[in-house]
Every structure is written in structure tokens, then in C-alpha cells.
Amino acid sequence: MCVSLMLLLLVCGAQSTHFYGTVMTYYPKNTNADGSLTVVLRYKLSFHDCSTRDLWQCPSLNCGTQTSLVLNVVDQESSGEWCQREGIMTRRVPINSQFQLELTGFAWINNNNGIMFWRAVTGVELRNRSDIGQANTSPQTIILPALRVPSNCRRDFHLLDFDPDGDEVRCRYANSSLSECFDCTTPSVLSLSESCILSFSPTSSANEGPYTVQMVMEDFPRQTISLTQNGGLTVNSAISKIPVQFAVRVDPAVPSCTEGLYLPRFLTPTPANKAQLYAPVNQTLSISVNAEANVSRTLELLFSGPHNTNKSSLGAGRFLLRWTPSQEEDGESHPICFVVQSITSSTTKYQSELRCVIVTVGNEPTISTAVPSTTTPTFNYHPYNNSLNYNYSSLNNYPTDFDQQYNYTSYNHYSINNNYPTQHNNYPYTNHTNIHHFFTNDTYTNNNPTKNSRTYNNNTSNYNHRPFTNSDCSPYYYNIESIRDFYI
Ligand SMILES: *[C@@H]1O[C@H](CO)[C@@H](O)[C@H](O)[C@H]1NC(C)=O
Ligand SMILES: *[C@@H]1O[C@H](CO)[C@@H](O)[C@H](O)[C@H]1NC(C)=O
Ligand SMILES: *[C@@H]1O[C@H](CO)[C@@H](O)[C@H](O)[C@H]1NC(C)=O
Ligand SMILES: *[C@@H]1O[C@H](CO)[C@@H](O)[C@H](O)[C@H]1NC(C)=O
Ligand SMILES: *[C@@H]1O[C@H](CO)[C@@H](O)[C@H](O)[C@H]1NC(C)=O
Ligand SMILES: *[C@@H]1O[C@H](CO)[C@@H](O)[C@H](O)[C@H]1NC(C)=O
Ligand SMILES: *[C@@H]1O[C@H](CO)[C@@H](O)[C@H](O)[C@H]1NC(C)=O
Ligand SMILES: *[C@@H]1O[C@H](CO)[C@@H](O)[C@H](O)[C@H]1NC(C)=O
Ligand SMILES: *[C@@H]1O[C@H](CO)[C@@H](O)[C@H](O)[C@H]1NC(C)=O
Ligand SMILES: *[C@@H]1O[C@H](CO)[C@@H](O)[C@H](O)[C@H]1NC(C)=O
Ligand SMILES: *[C@@H]1O[C@H](CO)[C@@H](O)[C@H](O)[C@H]1NC(C)=O
Ligand SMILES: *[C@@H]1O[C@H](CO)[C@@H](O)[C@H](O)[C@H]1NC(C)=O
After folding, report:
1. Ligand 7 lined by 391 (C-beta under 6 Å)
2. Which distant-in-sequence residues (6+ apart) come within 8 Å of 388 by Cβ?
3. Where in the sequence is the signal peptide annotated (predicted)?
4. For residues 288 and 291, what is the distance between their CA atoms, to the nearest angstrom?
5. Cα 331 → chain centroid
6. What's the whole-number average pLDDT of the chain?
7. d(Cα 290, Cα 270) in Å, to the nearest integer?
8. What pLDDT, on a 0 to 100 scale, did the predictor assign at position 70?
């Protein structure tokens, strides 16, 4: 260890303190003719300047071959505080690979938690997942190199934690036992929750200054899955892990923590944090970011995202971020994060809250089956187009997609193809012909009289498909087993 640290010191020691952190994510791509898999790893690399170099290493020789690496500037802070670049690394790896990539170096910016050497580790898992029938994609996130908060203001940084596979994403600090950092002292003024919220509470001016944050984000399957390799391995632990490292600067106290005065406040139509946006291939997505800070002369937009995102200022706290996804990014989801920073004097900078959006490359899914509405209930329909198909002595409302789990919002009783009055099954109960959801056991119909078909009710959102077998099933999941319990 000492030897390698000495070597690093010799290699990098001439530099002043300069590192501002990194993030790495990955997407598996196509399987090649020779059976190998292409994986695209994207990383952000932040330094004081735009020219400092550092390369990700493969310590275990099983990372396949790097077929391309491009590095481009993403954004620079206006006073020259930091520069963030994006690296896009393409590797050709044996199918079913798992490997780690490491970034190490010296030195972090000066910081109150006394960290000098950096080390970041990405755990790539490309074995075939039993639940999705393909390789895992890592959580997708990014971060700005330096976030600021005045020492007297409370702030929660809700970090983006999007997972394209729908996994549960959890955050934790990097752990020295797992070699995820060299020096792992956590920032004393910040607390990190498993749900990726980094919280700062007002603190004494003695604690002002920069802190380094060295985190790990991991994706966990929501159900036990197996990863195929020599017959399969069952996992319910983390699948992949990515490093998220950056700085938080605790600045001198501000006269008021009210947003919109010193601290910039976002105005409409700035997208909400964690908003999901859609951009088809070759079509430019424009994101408007508007902010105000009444006690400020200058506002600037700082962002992180794909390197070919363009930012422009329209004046008066109005900004535009524009990104055009390419063919290679079709179907993927990429994050864009931003803050607005006010500069009241040459040394005083205040930042808005952090916001991130996730941009999914493709068309926005058409919302035809999920939006509840009482006037035109278009969600959920009877798959058959005439009443003869609805047989009260047989199954009713059989879903066309048998793998899907239906719940009460996604399954109403409205026929799109007529032969039924629009609110057919909302008619008062008189006999089996005009009511669809007659339970075989009246006991259940009385479980929740306002939410079942026995009552006169033409409000479709009141219709509850509480499974016959489980009266405690909340929020009223309507699964395939229970469908058998519904008769005309
Ligand atoms: C992954 O599993 C799915 C379903 O079992 C299978 O169709 C697919 O070919 C597998 N992919 C690879 C790369 O083995
Ligand atoms: C670090 O990882 C080790 C090994 O998995 C574990 O025992 C330990 O509790 C972890 N430490 C922290 C602070 O999470
Ligand atoms: C900032 O000034 C605008 C325009 O005068 C006003 O509408 C807004 O309420 C002010 N914001 C705050 C936080 O005082
Ligand atoms: C996007 O543009 C590229 C280059 O102009 C073109 O090759 C590709 O076919 C276009 N894709 C779509 C979906 O428009
Ligand atoms: C971004 O700016 C570059 C250079 O000015 C330009 O070539 C590119 O088309 C712009 N992209 C978008 C999405 O506006
Ligand atoms: C009714 O559905 C059947 C089978 O799903 C289909 O063949 C037929 O064309 C439909 N009739 C009308 C009028 O939509
Ligand atoms: C209704 O279902 C019963 C029992 O499954 C069956 O015997 C009958 O033929 C069905 N009637 C129609 C019109 O489909
Ligand atoms: C209900 O089902 C729809 C469609 O399957 C889904 O979009 C929605 O999230 C589900 N709602 C709940 C509460 O699970
Ligand atoms: C069932 O209700 C319908 C419509 O109200 C009516 O036409 C039919 O005669 C009723 N059948 C019986 C058996 O009561
Ligand atoms: C109907 O409900 C009663 C009372 O809860 C229960 O004893 C009986 O088993 C139920 N019948 C069926 C067919 O589930
Ligand atoms: C419900 O439907 C009945 C019968 O069609 C109608 O008279 C009543 O006005 C409706 N009520 C509401 C709240 O829509
Ligand atoms: C329908 O029922 C839901 C749930 O009880 C209620 O929130 C909603 O206001 C109702 N809508 C109408 C039009 O009565």
C-alpha cells in the first residue's frame, strides 16, 4: 500500500490540489457476432482545470478490450473553480462478464475531512438477469463537481437515483473494507440516507469550508433473481455499484435563507427534480430553467449531463439547456442536473437547490390505460367487443395480457368497442345481466360497500377489485388469480 501511494505521489505529486470527484454509469449494448458483448461506460471527471488527466484502470484483466474512449468538456464554472468532463468508454467484453474499474489519484481539493488520495470503484455486472432476460444496466445518476450551502441554512440534496431496469437504488458512503476509497472519512456536517438524500443542517461557522463526499450507489432487484453463469446464481444483494464523488462547500452564513433573495429560487417552467422527460432520436430537447434571486447581480446556470448539451442564457435568470440524442442512445435514459448560482460579489456565491431530470430517448409513452377519469374512463377496458363475450357463468374481464398485474386504477369497466353503455357496470344492481362484478361470496361485497359493484355507483374510481381471496390486499391489486373470482 505504502509503495503504491508513494508511486502515486511521485506521479501526481507535482500537482496542486485539484480533484472534484467522479461518477460512472454503464449501459450494456448489443451482443456481437463472436458472442462478445459491447458495454458503454460513461463517466464524469471533475478537476480544477480542464486539462488534468486520469484514466480508469482494470485491476483484474477481465474487462475485455477498450474499443474507444472519447473525453469532452461538459461544463465549467465561470470563475474557473472547476471543469467537468465526460468520458465515453466502449468496451468489448466476454458475454456474462463481471468486472471492476478503478480510478485512483492524488489530490482531492483541500477539504475539512482531510482526504487527499482519491479512489473510485465501479462494479459492472453483465450476466444475464433472469427477470429481464438481458444484462443489467447500472443506476443512472450524475452530480455537479461542487455544491454550495450557507452554514446557517438547511438543505437536502435529493440525488437522482434512476434505474432503467426498475431496480431499487440505494446509497451509502464508500467503505474502506471494500476498497472503495483510500481515506474514507465521511463529511461530518452531512448525513446520507439509503434513499440517496444528502442532508445538511445549520452548523457553526467553525465548520465552514469544503467537504468531499465519497458515495456508492447500488441497484437491488425487487425480487430474488438469478444471474446466469454456469447454471445460475441466485441474488437478492446489490447487482452493480457505481461511485458518486463530489465536493460540498459550506459557505459563510447568508443574511436570509429564504429562497429567491440571496439563494436563487427556481420558477416555472423549470422541471421538477427527478422529472422524466422524453426526446426521440435526432430531436432536440429544450429544458427551460428560470430562477430569481432578488439580492443578486448575476445568475449563472451550472449543469452536468451529456457533453453535447448546450446551455444558453436568455437573460433575467432565464436559461435553456438543449440536447439532441443520437441513434446510439435510443431507448436509454440519461440524466441532466443543474443548479443556478448567484454571484453577489467576487467571493460570494449562492446556489439554488439541486435539480435533476432523466431524459429517456424515445417517444413519450401514450397514456391510454393508466389515467383515471370519471368522465371518460379510458383506462382499462373490456377486451371483448360484444356482450355475448361476457358470460356471467364464465370468466369475465379476462385481461389480454396474462403476465400483467392489474390494480383498480388500471382496470375499469368501460367498453371501448360499444355494445355497452359507457358506464355499463356502473348501473344499479338488479340482476346478473347488468352487473359485472358480482362476487361469488357476498361477504366480500360487504367488506367495502362504497367500493364494489353491488352499490349503485357510476364513479369508476370507486370500483374496487379487491381480490376474493385476500380482503387485505392494498392498494387493491387485482391479479390473475383473483380474476377467477369475478363473475358477471
Ligand atoms: C438471456 O436470457 C434470455 C431469456 O432466458 C434469453 O432469451 C437470452 O438469449 C439470454 N441472453 C444472453 C445474452 O444469453
Ligand atoms: C464496510 O464493509 C464491511 C464488509 O462488507 C462491513 O462489514 C462494514 O460494516 C462496512 N462498514 C460500513 C461503515 O458500512
Ligand atoms: C423577488 O422580487 C419579485 C419582483 O419584485 C417578487 O415578485 C418576489 O416575490 C421577490 N422574491 C422574494 C423571495 O422576495
Ligand atoms: C438520426 O440522424 C442520423 C444522422 O443524420 C441518421 O443516420 C439516422 O438515421 C437518424 N435517425 C433517426 C431515427 O432519425
Ligand atoms: C450545440 O452547439 C453546437 C456548437 O454551437 C452546435 O453544433 C450544436 O448543433 C448545438 N446543439 C444543439 C442541441 O443545439
Ligand atoms: C370483435 O372482436 C372480434 C375478435 O376480437 C373481431 O374479429 C371483430 O372484428 C370485432 N368486431 C367489431 C365490430 O369490432
Ligand atoms: C358461458 O360459460 C359456460 C360455462 O363456462 C358455457 O357452458 C357456455 O357455453 C358459455 N356461454 C357462452 C355464450 O359463451
Ligand atoms: C396500476 O397499474 C397501472 C398499469 O399496469 C400502473 O401504471 C400503475 O402504476 C399501477 N398503480 C399502482 C398503485 O400500482
Ligand atoms: C335483468 O335486468 C335487465 C335490465 O334491467 C332486464 O331487462 C332483465 O329482464 C332482468 N332479468 C331478470 C332475470 O331479472
Ligand atoms: C364466504 O364467506 C364466508 C364468511 O366469511 C366463508 O365462511 C366462506 O368460506 C366463503 N365462501 C367461499 C366460497 O369462499
Ligand atoms: C350516475 O348515473 C345515473 C344513471 O345514468 C345518473 O342518473 C346520475 O346522474 C349519475 N351520477 C353522476 C354523479 O354522474
Ligand atoms: C369518485 O370517487 C373518488 C373516490 O371516492 C372521489 O375522490 C372522486 O371525487 C369521485 N368523483 C366524482 C365525480 O364523484
Report:
1. yes
2. none
3. 1-16
4. 10
5. 15
6. 76
7. 6
8. 96
CA 207/CA 5 separation, integer angstroms = 29
Ligand nearest to the CA of 170: 2
Q: Average pLDDT in the 208-236 region?
A: 84
Contact 1, 51 (CB under 8 A): no
Residue 437 C-alpha to ligand 5 middle, in angstroms? Answer: 57
How many A from CA of 357 to the centre of ligand 4?
24
Say if residues 443 and 471 touch (Cβ distance below 8 Å).
no
CATH dotted code for 259-365: 2.60.40.10
What ligand is nearest to the CA atom of residue 320? 5
Q: What would the grid cell of residue 436 be?
A: 359485472
Give the residue extent of every domain in the chain.
2-253, 259-365, 368-488
- Name the amino acid, one letter, at 295: V
Ligand nearest to the CA of 317: 3
Q: What is the pLDDT of residue 163?
A: 95
Q: Which residue has the higher pLDDT, 109 or 10?
A: 109
Which of 281, 282, 310 for a ligand 5 pocket mutation test, highest count of atoms within 8 Å of Cβ?
310
What is the value of pTM for the model shown? Answer: 0.66
**CA 98/CA 312 separation, integer angstroms:** 40
Backbone angles phi, psi at 165, to 5 degrees: -90, 0
Verify cis geometry, omega within 30 degrees of 0, for the bond prior to 335: no
Q: Poorest-confidence range of 19-23, 111-115, 225-229?
A: 225-229
